[in-house]
Design brief:
The chain has 167 residues and is α+β, with helices and mostly antiparallel strands. It contains 6 helices and 6 strands; from the N terminus they run βββββααβαααα. It is elongated.
């Protein structure tokens, strides 16, 4: 790492700390030439391979923007969307791959979106999965009814939420 003060091409790491839920590392460095200290921040790259073959860095903002359209008019706030984007990024990073197909990003969005809001999920899935007929919607609705999401299938979850709200 080049020293920003004297431009010496080496530095010594004095301290390292994880930030951003462990996705970044902040390092405190010292230049052996001039003795100045400075900080750097390192992030593991996660690139998305688009359909065209081009790659671009993963962006939580793009996930939020895409999902926001499906959530229009629904009781979903910006914090919910930010948490969804974080969950999507975490699930993609857990694959251990540095480059991921755009199609996989869409698949990673579906599960947390379903837990957040089933109507928004259905809207997003209709575009993402390219629904062409009423039967496509009916089939997806039948699946929603057959396999309830974890946020709506448990009275235990509802009781835990009401208990937490009382405290």
């Amino acid at each position: 790492m080049i020293c920003p003060f004297c431009r010496h091409d080496d530095s010594r790491v004095v301290d390292s700390r994880q930030v951003e839920d462990g996705t970044q590392i902040r390092r405190r460095r010292e230049c052996p030439q001039c003795g100045s200290r400075f900080s750097t921040q390192e992030t593991a790259l996660l690139n998305i391979i688009k359909r065209s073959g081009a790659t671009e860095p993963f962006s939580r903002e793009k996930v939020v923007a895409g999902v926001r359209k499906a959530c229009q008019g629904r009781p979903v706030n910006d914090d919910d969307l930010a948490l969804l984007a974080q969950r999507v990024e975490e699930s993609l990073r857990l694959t251990g791959q540095a480059e991921i197909e755009a199609q996989e990003v869409g698949m990673a969005i579906l599960a947390p979106l379903r837990e957040l809001d089933e109507v928004a999920y259905l809207r997003y899935a209709s575009v993402y999965r390219n629904f062409n007929s009423l039967e496509d919607f009916e089939g997806e609705i039948a699946l929603l009814r057959a396999v309830p999401s974890s946020s709506t299938d448990s009275s235990v979850t509802k009781n835990a939420i009401s208990t937490a709200q009382k405290n």
